Amino acid sequence: MADARPRTVTFRVRRFEPGRDERPRWEDHRVEVTPGMTVLDGLWKVKEQSAPSLAWRSSCRMGICGSCGMLIDGRPRLACNTQVAELGSEVVAVGPLPNFDIVKDLVPDLRPMFETHRDLRPYLLRDDTEEQDDPTREYWQSPHELEEYLQFSYCIKCGCCMAACPTVATDPHYAGPMPLAQAQRYDSDSRDAGFGERREVLSGGDGPWRCHFAGECSQVCPKGVDPAKAIQLMKRDLVFDLLRLRRRKPPAAVAEAPHGLPREGIPPAPPRTVPEG
Ligand code: SF4
Ligand code: SF4
Ligand code: FES
Fold this sequence. Notes:
Ubiquitin-like (UB roll), 2 domains, two-stranded antiparallel sheet, 7 strands, globular, binds iron/sulfur cluster
């Protein structure tokens, strides 16, 4: 039977408050570890026991919200998705994600990443804006077309890939793996017609051509998104487009009204919550 007795490890936590501290420092805190305990649980213990002002960002505690990305034992990871036991070390080093400015302690300033993400228009771009604002039906998409972008849509915008990318580390203007992968996610969507608009944003030197395809971003991604693959597909599509070889159907149309008998066991749609007109 596994030994379930608690043991103790040292949480070595990086502290820094810009404008107040001259330079970052490391603080050691002893924490009793219980089976199943995550690094995020450990940080809460540190905060309760001995460092009430320690700052980090977290919310869901289940690898969904993307807010608890940190540098844990030298690798960008989600604190809530990393068990202390899996690290296998007596000293757990926790710092903020590299390649971002620090707001305080373990809180990175993710604004540059999200500004680039916003500039690349990460949503369906189409001409039928009225239909989009007030949908009458869903847009039709085949399972095969869904597969074209599904993996990229699992991104939770945690920034771990940005922290691991050597190009982001050396070129602050590089768009980076998260925004590029999300641009490719929408460019690959059969319901989207925004390739041309996103291509204009990417036409400078800061887009996918700066990617060296080292793949570090995909190595650390906690959701299996594979942003390095998305970026290489983006390069392919841009080259095909330049050579006028990129074939693309018009964006998917609104699905036809279903015909035939309703399938058994499917409940009727709930009433509208927003009044028509
Ligand atoms: S691609 Fe992966 S590592 Fe990068 S932001 Fe999305 S979920 Fe995080
Ligand atoms: S594959 Fe490209 S985006 Fe990913 S870490 Fe390497 S250089 Fe950065
Ligand atoms: S707290 Fe939401 S991903 Fe970790």
